[in-house]
C-alpha cells in the first residue's frame, strides 16, 4: 500500500515538473515540499497502523489460547427417578414407592493431552443425614495418565472393572428401570475402591486391565454387597487384586472376563474367621442393527468354615437379555435373572426374576422406562416399575 501511494505521488510530481519546466517558481517548490511532508506523515501513520494490527493479532491468539485452556474443564452428570409398585405375595410387605434414586455430577479436568482428572459425586435417595434414607457419596476421583499409546495408568478412587453396568450405568445406556439384580447382589455394582490401575492396549480391540485396590470387608453374615467399604476410612489390612481382559475387535461384539482375589474378605476382623475369596465374572454383548443380546455370569468362592456353615461360601448368578430397538426413540427388552447368595446351602435359596419392558428415548440422553417384574424361586413377588433418566 505504501509503495502504491509513493508511485502515485511521484507520477504527480513528474507531471507537475514537466508542465512547468520552463517556469519553476518558488510557489511550485513550496507545493512539492508540502506534498513530500504529507507523504512522510502518511508513511508514519501506515507504520503505526501495521503495528496496531500486529498487536491485535497477538491479543486474539492469546485469547484463543486461554479459551482452549478453559475448555479442558468438563462438567456432566446423570440422574433417575423411579416409581416401584411391587407386591410381595409371601410376606405382604409390598413396595409402593417413588424415589429420586440417584443425582450424580461429574467433574473433570485435562491438564495435558496425556494427563487428566475425573470425579463423580452422588446423592442417593434425595436426602441424607441422620435418620434419612440417602447418602452423599464420592464414587470416583482419580488421576489418569497415558504413558504412551499402549499403557494408561490411573490412581485414586475408581470403579472396579467387573461386569457390564459397574463402569457404565447411566440410565439411557441400559434397559429396565432398576439395574439388574445379578450385578447388584453378586458383583456387587455399583462398586468402587481406591488404589492404582494399569490399562494395556495389547492389540487392536484387545485390552487388559490390572489393579491393586482396597477390598471388601464382610461381617459374620458374609454379605458381599454389605462388604463394600466405599473408601470411607476403609480397612486395608488385606488388599484386592483384579484383572480383566476385554475383546472388542469384531464390530458389534464385546467379550470380557474378570478375576479378583482377596486374601481375607473379613480384613482380619476380630472374632471372625479368615476367609480368602475369589470373584470370577464373564459377559458377552452382541449388537447387529437394532438387535442386542447381553449375557453375564458371576460367582464368588469364599474359603472359610463360617461362610460354609451359612451356605455363603458359594454365591453366584447369571442373566440373559435380548432387546430390540425399532428406531432412535423406542426399544423393548426381556431379561431373565437367576442369583443365589446362599448357593452353598442345602436348601433351595435361588431367586429367579423376569423383567419385560420398554424404553422411550425422548432424546438420545433422556429416557422414559416401564417394565413388568415377576420374582420367583425363594421369593414370590410381582408388579411394575416406571422411571425417567438422563445424562449430559
UniProtKB/TrEMBL annotation:
InterPro entries in the record: Porin_dom_sf, Porin_O/P
Coiled-coil spans in chain: 25-66
Superkingdom of origin organism: Bacteria
Leader peptide range in chain numbering: 1-21
Keywords: Coiled coil, Signal
SUPFAM superfamilies membership: Porins
Pfam families the UniProt entry points to: Porin_O_P (PF07396)
Protein name in the entry: Porin
Source species: Shewanella youngdeokensis
Amino acid at each position: 500500500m505504501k509503495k502504491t501511494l509513493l508511485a502515485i505521488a511521484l507520477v504527480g510530481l513528474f507531471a507537475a515538473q514537466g508542465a512547468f519546466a520552463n517556469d519553476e517558481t518558488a510557489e511550485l517548490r513550496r507545493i512539492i515540499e508540502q506534498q513530500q511532508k504529507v507523504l512522510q506523515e502518511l508513511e508514519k501513520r501506515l507504520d503505526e497502523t501495521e503495528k496496531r494490527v500486529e498487536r491485535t493479532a497477538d491479543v486474539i491468539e492469546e485469547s484463543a489460547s486461554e479459551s482452549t485452556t478453559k475448555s479442558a474443564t468438563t462438567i456432566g452428570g446423570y440422574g433417575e427417578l423411579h416409581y416401584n409398585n411391587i407386591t410381595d405375595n409371601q410376606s405382604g410387605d409390598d413396595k409402593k414407592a417413588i424415589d429420586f434414586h440417584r443425582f450424580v455430577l461429574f467433574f473433570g479436568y485435562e491438564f495435558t493431552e496425556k494427563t487428566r482428572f475425573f470425579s463423580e459425586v452422588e446423592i442417593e435417595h434425595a436426602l441424607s443425614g441422620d435418620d434419612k434414607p440417602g447418602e452423599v457419596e464420592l464414587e470416583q476421583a482419580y488421576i489418569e495418565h497415558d504413558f504412551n499409546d499402549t499403557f494408561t495408568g490411573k490412581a485414586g478412587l475408581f470403579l472396579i472393572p467387573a461386569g457390564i453396568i459397574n463402569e457404565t450405568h447411566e440410565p439411557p445406556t441400559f434397559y429396565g428401570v432398576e439395574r439388574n439384580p445379578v450385578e447388584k447382589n453378586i458383583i456387587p455394582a455399583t462398586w468402587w475402591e481406591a488404589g492404582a490401575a494399569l490399562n494395556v492396549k495389547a492389540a487392536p480391540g484387545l485390552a487388559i486391565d490390572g489393579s491393586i485396590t482396597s477390598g471388601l470387608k464382610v461381617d459374620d453374615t458374609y454379605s458381599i454387597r454389605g462388604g463394600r467399604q466405599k473408601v470411607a476410612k476403609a480397612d486395608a489390612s488385606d488388599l484386592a487384586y483384579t484383572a480383566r481382559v476385554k475383546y472388542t475387535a469384531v464390530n458389534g461384539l464385546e467379550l470380557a472376563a474378570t478375576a479378583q482375589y482377596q486374601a481375607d474378605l473379613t480384613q482380619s476382623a476380630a472374632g471372625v474367621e479368615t476367609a480368602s475369596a475369589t470373584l470370577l465374572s464373564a459377559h458377552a454383548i452382541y449388537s447387529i442393527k437394532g438387535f442386542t443380546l447381553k449375557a453375564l455370569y458371576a460367582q464368588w468362592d469364599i474359603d472359610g468354615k463360617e461362610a460354609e456353615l451359612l451356605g455363603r461360601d458359594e454365591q453366584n448368578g447369571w442373566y440373559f437379555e435380548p432387546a430390540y430397538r425399532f428406531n432412535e426413540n423406542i426399544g423393548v427388552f426381556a431379561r431373565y435373572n437367576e442369583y443365589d447368595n446362599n448357593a452353598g446351602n442345602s436348601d433351595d435359596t435361588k431367586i429367579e426374576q423376569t423383567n419385560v419392558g420398554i424404553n422411550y428415548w425422548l432424546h438420545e440422553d433422556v429416557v422414559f422406562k416401564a417394565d413388568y417384574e415377576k420374582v420367583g424361586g425363594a421369593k414370590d413377588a410381582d408388579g411394575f416399575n416406571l422411571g425417567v433418566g438422563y445424562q449430559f
